[in-house]
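User: These chains co-purify. Model them together.
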Amino acid sequence: MGMVNQSVLVYERLDSNMKNSQVRNVVIDVLLRNGLVDDAFKVLDEMLQKESVFPPNRITADIVLHEVSKGRLLTEEKIIALISRFSSHGVSPNSVWLTRFISSLCKNTRANAAWDILSDLMKNKTPLEAPPFNALLSCLGRNMDISRMNDLVLKMDEVKIRPDVVTLGILINTLCKSRRVDEALEVFEQMRGKRTDDGNVIKADSIHFNTLIDGLCKVGRLKEAEELLVRMKLEERCVPNAVTYNCLIDGYCRAGKLETAKEVVSRMKEDGIKPNVVTVNTIVGGMCRHHGLNMAVVFFMDMEKEGVKGNVVTYMTLIHACCSVSNVEKAMYWYEKMLEAGCSPDAKIYYALISGLCQVRRDHDAIRVVEKLKEGGFSLDLLAYNMLIGLFCDKNNAEKVYEMLTDMEKEGMKPDSITYNTLISFFGKHKDFESVERMMEQMREDGLDPTVTTYGAVIDAYCSVGELDEALKLFKDMGLHSKVNPNTVIYNILINAFSKLGNFGQALSLKEEMKMKMVRPNVETYNALFKCLNEKTQGETLLKLMDEMVEQSCEPNQITMGF
DNA sequence: CTAGGGTTAG
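Assistant: Joint model of the two components:
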C-alpha cells in the first residue's frame, strides 16, 4: 500500500502537462489493482472530459474494462455508458473483451443493448473487427431474426468491417436452420473468395460445407447434398469428416432409406473416417421410426462390437421408441440398461420417459418417474409440466393437477398458452364454466392471447351443454376481437353440434361458409353432416355431398362407410 | 459458425 500511496503522491505533484495519457494509464492501473476504485475513476474522468488534452487511448480502455469486469466493479448499465464515453473519443474496447461482453449481454436477452453498443462504436468510427459482430449475429441467428442480421451485415459493409469465416458460417447456418437453403447457398457463393481491401479472402471451410449439406438433407434434397460432398472433396481446405457423413446419414434416415444410410456408413469407413456415437444414434433413431425397435437394437449391438459405445442419447432414443409402442416395461428395461452401462441420466432422459408415459396414459408410472427425476436432483420444465397436467386432466385427477400447478409456481414458472388450453378444456369437459371464464381471464392477465385451441375448447364446452347461442357468440368473437381465425376443427365442432340437434340447414350453411373462407373441410366435416342426413334419410343430398367429398379430396373413412 | 435425444390442447 505504501508503494501505491507514493505513486499517487508523485502523480498528484506532477504538472498537469506531464500527466499525459500514458502516465494516467499507469496510475489508473495501479489504483484499480489495489482496489482504490474511486481514485482510479477520478483520474479516468479527467481523461474522459470532452475537451481533454490527454484523451483515453486503446490501452486506457484495455486496463479499465479488464479490471472492471474482473472485479465486477460496475453494473452492466454503467459499463455500457463507459464504452460509450470511450467511443466518443474514437476508442474501441479490445476485440476479445468486447466479444465476451456482447455475448454475455446476448445471453441475458439484451441483444438490443448489444446492438446499440456496436452502432455507437461504428458511428464514432472506432476500429472494430468481426468477432464482436459475430457474437451478436449468432444471437440474432438463434432467434431466427434474419432481417436484423442482414441489416447488421450491411452496416458492417458500410464502415468497412470485414466479415470472416465465422460470420459466413453464422449466416449460412441461420438460413439453413430456417430452411432457406437456396439463400444460404447464394450467400455462400457470394461471400466465399471475396477479397477485401487488405487483400484478405474469406475461404470456404469444412463447417460451411457441412452446414449446407445438413441444410439440404433436412429439406430432403439428398441428391444436391451428395453433389456438394463431391465439390467439397475438390476444395483445398475442406476435408469431409464424421459430421459431413452423419448429416447425409440423417438425411437418408429421415427419407426412410435405411439401406442407403447404412451404405453411407460403409463409404465413410472407406474414406478413413470412423463412425461415432452420433452415427449410431442417427441410424438407431431412423430404424426405430421406420422399421421398429428390433432392427435398431441389432444395429446398436453390432456397433458396440465394433467399439462404438452408446450414450444417453442412444438409450433415450430406444426408450422413446418403446414408449411410442406403449411398451413401458421395455422402456424401463432400457432405462436399467443405461444405468448398467454407466451412463448417468440427464434431465432429458426423464422428460422422454415422462413424455412416453403420458402418451400411453400411464399416470402412476409417470408419477414414479417424476420422483426419480427429483431424486436425481433435476426439476421438471414447462414442457414436462404441460404433458403431466394433460395426463392428470385426462385421468380426472384434479388433485394432481393442482399439485403440478403449485409446484410450477413454487419454481417460478409461468403457465403458457398450452397449460391454459389444457386446463380450459379440462374445466370445459366438466361443464365448470365459472372456472373456464376464470382461466380465460387469468390467461389474459398473464399477457397471453387466446389461441384457436382456447376457443375450440370453450366452444366445444358450450356445444356439449346445448348452449349453441353462447358457442356462436364466441365463434363470432374470434374473427372480430382477436387475430385468430376459425379453423377446420372449430367449424367441425359447430357443424357437429347443429347436426346432432337436427338443424341440417345451419350445419350446411356453416360448411358453405368454411369453403368460402378457404377453410378446408375434412372427412369429419362431412361425417358430421351425414350424421344428420342419416336420420332423415335424405339419400339424394347424401350422394351429392359424397361427390363433393371426392372433389375436396377427402378420403372417406370407417365412419363414412357406416352411412 | 457444423451432426444425434422429449412438445401439449380440439
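Residues 486-563 of chain A form one domain.
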